[in-house]
Amino acid sequence: MAGPLPLADPAPRDGLLPDSVAIGADARAFGVYLHVPFCLVRCGYCDFNTYTSTELRGASQADYATQAIGEIVQAARVLEAAGLPQRPARTVFFGGGTPTLLPASDLVRMLDAIRTYLGIADGAEITTEANPDSVDEEYLQELARAGFTRVSFGMQSAVPGVLATLDRTHDPARIPVVVRAARAAGLQVSLDLIYGTPGETIHDWRTSLETAIAERPDHVSAYALIVEQGTKLARRIRSGELAAPSDDLQADMYELADELLGAAGYSWYEVSNWAASPSFRSRHNLSYWTGADWWGVGPGAHSHVGGVRWWNVKHPAAYAGLVSDGASPAHGRETLDDGTRLVERILLETRIADGLAIDVLGADARQAVAGLIADGLVNGEAALHGRIILTLRGRLLADAVVRRLIG
């Protein structure tokens, strides 16, 4: 289980939003994130808000779909009461945890509720995450028939020893099996990878990349391992059982990923994400990076609508109790001021290949752009056309670029 929720103002019991959220809403996309907080086992590196069966303490996995639907009904009421226009969801994303630990029929019920109470736009992107050992062809076909368009498999590595260090339980031989099954169902496929695991070599990482590329997924995510405090992995490193990840080796691994994926026809569109074509970019994740609105359903889920951000109680039992009582499950809320929204825009939009408009920056930040170009962190030609777009070196040092732009 993850650490405590952020400090903020308490959220109202009825969950109602201020009228200000409706300002400019027609120009903002709307999506839905649905968090399924269940896992078969806890991976040693994970600090997400997830729970194994022994950690549920009275919450029922079997009742979860009904509880989530209760929040979806609340969302429709709250959005209407705030005077927001009808905006069918352009993206829906089931994340976790492992959404596919639930029966496919539960995911379909929750998707149908979103369609009924919030609306789903024509051509919407509808994704679920899945572990390779949690689905089969029949399961994926049921999702596709219900309107799912995309599945994101947590591959992480093709090397058994690396998976063991991460406490991942799936057999890497399952990857081609589930990719074929997803293709047969008509679903787009994304493969998620992690690099920098203690003990992982550059050869191991090349093996994982080449194995993923051989499956010709539509999309690949590659994330550097972050050792989160409070996790089993952090304890193993602190005790000396495992060596901490090497920043230099992770940089080499990132460069290798960009090289191999680029040679295979994939283009980066966000620092950790590559797509076979622009049409295969994760539209849901892009909505986060470009300041769209979304409602997060489920324990610990975060939402953002019109500059108001809130997050739900974390434990499934607390969440179930609030929703069953007709109360909002939101725990805390904050209203973003203009300065915070600008900082977040710089932080997020500099990470995407479309870049950040220079004209949103203050005078000091605009003056810093020339130095970033001179240091090889920002594309000079793009800057002449008014956009800050990171070079490969800039992607490796994205946090440093942001610090210089926000002063």
Automatic annotation (TrEMBL):
Subcellular location: Cytoplasm
Chief localisation class: cytoplasm
Keyword annotations from UniProtKB, A to Z: 4Fe-4S, Chaperone, Cytoplasm, Heme, Iron, Iron-sulfur, Metal-binding, S-adenosyl-L-methionine
Entry-linked SUPFAM superfamilies: Radical SAM enzymes (SSF102114)
GO MF terms held by the record: 4 iron, 4 sulfur cluster binding; coproporphyrinogen oxidase activity; metal ion binding
Domain Radical SAM core: from-to ranges: 24-267
SMART domains, sorted: Elp3
Any Pfam family the entry gives: Radical_SAM
One Gene Ontology term from the biological process aspect of the record: porphyrin-containing compound biosynthetic process
TM annotation in the entry: none
Keyword tRNA-binding: no
GO cellular component: cytoplasm
PANTHER family according to UniProt: COPROPORPHYRINIGEN III OXIDASE, RADICAL S-ADENOSYL METHIONINE DOMAIN-CONTAINING PROTEIN 1, MITOCHONDRIAL
Family membership noted in the UniProt record: Belongs to the anaerobic coproporphyrinogen-III oxidase family. HemW subfamily.
Role of this protein: Probably acts as a heme chaperone, transferring heme to an unknown acceptor. Binds one molecule of heme per monomer, possibly covalently. Binds 1 [4Fe-4S] cluster. The cluster is coordinated with 3 cysteines and an exchangeable S-adenosyl-L-methionine.
Protein name: Heme chaperone HemW
Naturally occurring in which organism (per UniProt): Labedella endophytica
